[in-house]
Amino acid sequence: MASKRPLLCLVLLSLAFSVSTISSRGIRLELSHVDARAALSGADRIRRAAERSHRRVNVLLGAAAPSPTTPPLHSDGGGGDAITSAATASVHASTATYLVDLAIGTPPLSLTAVLDTGSDLIWTQCDAPCRRCFPQPSPLYAPARSTTFANLSCGSPLCEHALPGSTRCSGSKKPSCAYYYSYGDGTSTDGVLATETFTFGSGATVVHGVAFGCGTDNLGGTDNSSGLVGLGRGPLSLPAQLGVTRFSYCFTPFHDTAKSSPIFLGSSATLSPAARSTPFVPSPTVPRRSSYYYLSLEGITVGDTLLPIDPAVFRLTASGRGGLIIDSGTTFTALEERAFVVMARAIAAQVALPLAAPGGAQLGLSLCFAAPGGKGPDAVRVPRVVFHFDGADMELPRGSVVVEDAKARVACVGMVSARGMSVLGSMQQQNMHILYDIDGGILSFEPANCGGL
Asked: How far is CA 439 from each of CA 26, 241, 359, 442, 443, rounded to the nearest angstrom?
């Protein structure tokens, strides 16, 4: 078995060589917020974000559960032969993460897929025929109608090594590589691995030979999309298949859903020399958990006080429990319960205003303050919050700490409590250009006007 691993490297290297244009010139995609086209009140937007965050964290926790005997983990409810120039694609956030508009096959069929930093597999629902498919906004992709579809065989290196524990080829005489992939929220996809041509933007970037899952038995749903595009750390992820060693994104403020947010893949992902950097923590070798981007959070400061939180609360264990993940799909940061309680008490003590318990419950957040003297929520003074990562401090401005319901005159801390894992959410990453250096094993970040990049 070990002798076949070089074959996997050759497959990936050949794909990376064929997409050298992307590596040298890069791709820019435009992200738009899920609520950009909806007329929502501030309260509705916060409530939807809280619901998405709890669901997303449960997906991550469910996928990271070490074994069926482990106590339940939960978030508390309080590539190609031909490439042309750079592309711009429309991306929308869903209840779980962001969605990207792309096209698959020849002729190309437009579809929308979840963009996910927490997994590797690229997949879509397939009419081959489809035994069970959930509703989606676009027609089902039919492999028989595409001239560039090709099954991956059970003997292919990608089938044997790229999805450990997810493919079904042992002792099988079937010519195709069957797979099964499940998520923590009950969503799953079952089908065959294949290769196909993918198009980003309005035909501007075309990549041939991308490995993906053609799902014909799918349960759950991906929230108004047709599948998923993984940006995780494995060989089947989009960055790996494009042959790029880095990508970055910059989220515009949570309260301004009309502005787009860019994501860069390849050489276009760059920061200034002033950027701060922290190493990724080596991922567990257990399947699925190895896809996550873990960071070492060593402490939290509120105001001028370093909180008395045991660093072990954020430590990733050898069995894959605990740790902190940086994630593009979780809106509100989820902190392990023991840390969240300490932080919440410290913030409440320094704000020194009455808690707006009913308002917080209605918004899905547990720490909310009533504005003083009938003033607006911007009158709530919030202390600075600093996340101390290994080698780099991330100081959060007020807009990355609280969300406001102007009608109810309430300001809420935009973070939630979880048990079993912590997740750095997109609201705490807003107005921060964040770069994933995959080869270097480093995450870098710097404040930025994301709408002006």
From this structure: 16, 14, 45, 8, 11
Q: What Å distances lie between residue 279 and 287, 297, 345, 410, 436, CA to CA?
A: 21, 11, 30, 37, 10
| Overall size of the chain counted in residues | 453
Q: What whole-number distance in Å separates Cα of residue 72 and Cα of residue 49?
A: 23
Structure tokens at 143: 């492999």
Reference 165, options 103, 130, 121; nearest CA is 121
Residue type, 189: T
Please, what is the end-to-end C-alpha distance for the chain in angstroms? 47
Phi and psi for 282 in degrees, rounded to 5?
-55, 130
Where residue 29 falls among pLDDT bands split at 50, 70, 90?
confident
Q: 5 pairs with which residues across the strands?
A: none
Q: Show which residues are catalytic.
A: 116, 327
228-239: pLDDT as tens digits: 888 999 889 999
Beta-sheet strand order (sheet of 402-405):
368-370, 410-413, 402-405
Give residues with Cβ within 8 angstroms of 25, minimum separation 6. 85, 86, 266, 267, 268
Check whether 66 has a pLDDT greater than 50: no
Distance CA 449, CA 93 (A): 20
Instruction: Kindly report, residue by residue over 153-206, the tens digit of the pLDDT.
Output: 888 888 876 666 666 775 555 578 988 888 766 778 899 999 999 998 666 789
Q: What percent of the chain is predicted at pLDDT more than 70?
A: 77
CA pair distance 142, 214, nearest whole angstrom: 9
**Per-residue 3-state assignment (H helix, E strand, C coil) for the chain:** CHHHHHHHHHHHHHHHHHCHHHHHHCEEEEEECCCCCCCCCHHHHHHHHHHHHHHHHHHHHHHHCCCCCCCCCEECCCCCCCCCCCCCCEEEECCCCEEEEEEECCCCEEEEEEEECCCCCCEEEECCCCCECCCCCCCCECHHHCCCCEECECCCHHHHHCCCCCEECCCCCCCEEEEEEECCCCCEEEEEEEEEEEEECCCCEEEEEEEEEEEEEEECCCCCCCEEEECCCCCCCHHHHHCCCEEEEECCCCCCCCCCEEEEECCCCCCCCCCEEEEEECCCCCCCHHHCCEECEEEEEECCEECCCCHHHHCECCCCCECEEECCCCCCEEEEHHHHHHHHHHHHHHHCCCECHHHHHHHCCCCEEECHHHCCHHHCCCCCEEEEECCEEEEECHHHCEEEECCCCEEEECEEEEECCEEECCHHHCCEEEEEECCCCEEEEEECCHHHC
